[in-house]
Automatic annotation (TrEMBL):
Name of the featured protein: PTS IIA-like nitrogen-regulatory protein PtsN
Organism ancestry: Bacteria, Pseudomonadati, Pseudomonadota, Gammaproteobacteria, Alteromonadales
Molecular function, one GO term: protein kinase activator activity
PROSITE patterns the UniProt entry points to: PTS_EIIA_TYPE_2 (PS51094), PTS_EIIA_TYPE_2_HIS (PS00372)
NCBIfam families membership: nitro_reg_IIA
Gene: ptsN
Natural source organism: Shewanella livingstonensis
A GO biological process held by the record: phosphoenolpyruvate-dependent sugar phosphotransferase system
InterPro entries on file: PTrfase/Anion_transptr, PTS_EIIA_type-2_dom, PTS_Nitro_regul, PTS_SugarTrans_NitroReg
């Protein structure tokens, strides 16, 4: 699945959320603003439920929070670059500044494991990470991540 089919430019942002909770709220608010049938609370609770099972911080300053929603029929992606890294309980104990969030229909979780895997692979590319971390503009951030 092409990233640009699930990630809208309006769901890509540079921000300074300050904490794990705040960045999950930011993600939830971005989704609710773009998809009025979804409430930010519903999205937040879905992401938080997954985080309670174990942190989605995969190391190297990257987190891939994800959640299941019964109220959607297609995946929704959100990309956030934090201007200041935040504590995220990542596996390497390092703070996180790059987040790719994915919301999937509750009955289609298996189909989207590949999307998570391909994003993790893309974010392991040192050149892409370097470009993302140098970017301070949401439009440019979207262009880099979808290239």
């Amino acid at each position: 699945m092409e990233l640009c089919t699930i990630l809208q430019p309006e769901c890509t942002t540079c921000a300074t959320p300050g904490s794990k909770k705040k960045v999950l709220e930011l993600i939830s608010n971005l989704v609710a603003a773009q998809y009025p049938t979804l409430s930010s609370q519903e999205v937040f609770e879905s992401l938080l439920a997954r985080e309670k099972m174990g942190s989605t911080g995969i190391g190297n300053g990257i987190a891939i929070p994800h959640g299941r929603l019964t109220t959607i029929d297609h995946p929704i992606a959100i990309f956030v670059k934090c201007e200041e890294a935040i504590a995220f309980d990542a596996i390497d104990k390092q703070p996180v500044d790059i987040l790719f969030a994915l919301l999937v229909p509750a009955d289609q979780c298996q189909q989207h494991l590949g999307t998570l895997s391909s994003m993790a692979k893309k974010l392991s590319d040192k050149q892409i990470l370097k470009q993302l971390r140098k970017t301070h503009d949401s439009t440019e951030l979207y262009q880099v991540i979808t290239a």
